[in-house]
Amino acid sequence: MRTFELKDGGAKLTLDEAGSVTKAGAAFGTWNTNGSNQIVVTKTAGGTTTLDVDWRFDDDNHLCIDQGGAQVFDINGDGATKPEFRVDRAELFIKPVDTSPFEFSLHPTWDLTEQHDLKMVVNGKSSTIDGVINDRNSAFRFRFVDKLDPIETFTLLFRGAWKNSPDPEHPAGVVYEYEIAGAAAPGVFTLPNKLVVDNNSLVLAYNYDKDGRTQSIQLVGQFSFNNFELNFGIERKTAAEGTSTTLKFDVDVKGKSADGKIIFALKRTDTGATTTTELSIGGAFTARFKNGVLTVGLAFSQRTINGTIASRELMFTGKLVHKGGAEFTWELKAANGSTTITIAANQIKLGAVTASTMITLKMKGGELKGVRAMFGVSF
């Protein structure tokens, strides 16, 4: 079993990775940590003593203990055993040997670097864990390896909630608010890139490149559209990963039936000005006539949080307008915006108005036509 020595004033204490302490070769007590990230020795004879130490991850992603500016112990340093790391509400729990019961914890503050590495600050001492953030089920998982033994992999799961970025210049930006034990306010990870739609599974994705590979966090959920606001309700697999939230985007709507996509141009949250940032959702255009109302929508298949594929629709309430010749549009209007979606003439079937006609369309020249079908849906 590995041991390390710490100075307690003029005396030396020997601590081992199972939580025991000896002094001059004799049993002295046990050790753990406190909320100030000090090592606390509980003496067998009664009483405690606290030892000031520093904690840091080195360039090999090893957690090290320093005292007096010198390294005294490398938690990852035993090739025969593997440590275990986990996060619970921002508190870092460590087992020096993953198969042993002894565990202690640290209370760091956390941040992300521009390279999406995880920065840990303990009592003012900063160090960086070189790793990646990726997940397919809406979780914030930071994964890293022991660089001297890459087969040893570790995952830190931060419980929290996905939120829209508060920065109006980044309408597709996202932040992650993670829970902190005993704190009223959450911690915040600000992710520098923007969200896109992964049209393979119709989820929102946060992508970035690191070391020649693309890393992705996939946010699984459901799209909805109302009054020029595109919503995405995020689903979470378990409560341990965090709460479900809804991302909201003020948008203008663009798109053509010919390319099978609806394009949402995002607006700034402060001025309402349309930006060049877009979210494009692909699928097949469809139409619905219900309770005397005709709507146009986009039908698509979407991956759910359970890994199944579900059929979804985004419906757009508006009206069919003939612009002249073979040009038709679907016009959407609301208090905070209006737009049109171009519809190809071959996607509309018109006929004479009869007693059974449910939907009529006034042509550009004033002639009334019956709408028999749109996008292959008959009325």
3D structure, described in words:
There is one protein chain. With 379 residues, the chain is mostly beta strands. The chain has no helices and 38 strands. The strands form 10 sheets. Strands 1-2-3-4-5-6 form a 6-stranded antiparallel β-sheet, with no helix packed on it. It has a 5-stranded antiparallel β-sheet with strand order 19-20-21-22-23, with no helix packed on it. A 5-stranded antiparallel β-sheet has the order 24-25-26-27-28, with no helix packed on it.
Provide a brief overview of the structure.
The protein has 379 residues and is an all-beta fold. The protein is 0% helix and 62% strand. The protein has a six-stranded antiparallel sheet with strand order 1-2-3-4-5-6, with no helix packed on it. The protein has a five-stranded antiparallel sheet with strand order 19-20-21-22-23, with no helix packed on it.
Question: What layout of secondary structure does this protein have?
Answer:
Elements: E1 3-8, E2 11-16, E3 20-23, E4 26-33, E5 39-43, E6 48-51, E7 54-57, E8 63-67, E9 70-74, E10 84-88, E11 91-95, E12 104-106, E13 109-112, E14 118-122, E15 125-129, E16 131-133, E17 140-146, E18 149-158, E19 160-164, E20 173-178, E21 187-198, E22 203-210, E23 213-219, E24 221-226, E25 229-234, E26 246-256, E27 261-267, E28 274-282, E29 284-290, E30 293-303, E31 309-317, E32 319-324, E33 327-334, E34 337-343, E35 348-351, E36 360-362, E37 368-374, E38 377-378
Antiparallel strand pairs: 1-2, 2-3, 3-4, 4-5, 5-6, 7-8, 8-9, 10-11, 11-12, 13-14, 14-15, 16-17, 17-18, 19-20, 20-21, 21-22, 22-23, 24-25, 25-26, 26-27, 27-28, 29-30, 30-31, 32-33, 33-34, 35-37, 36-37, 37-38
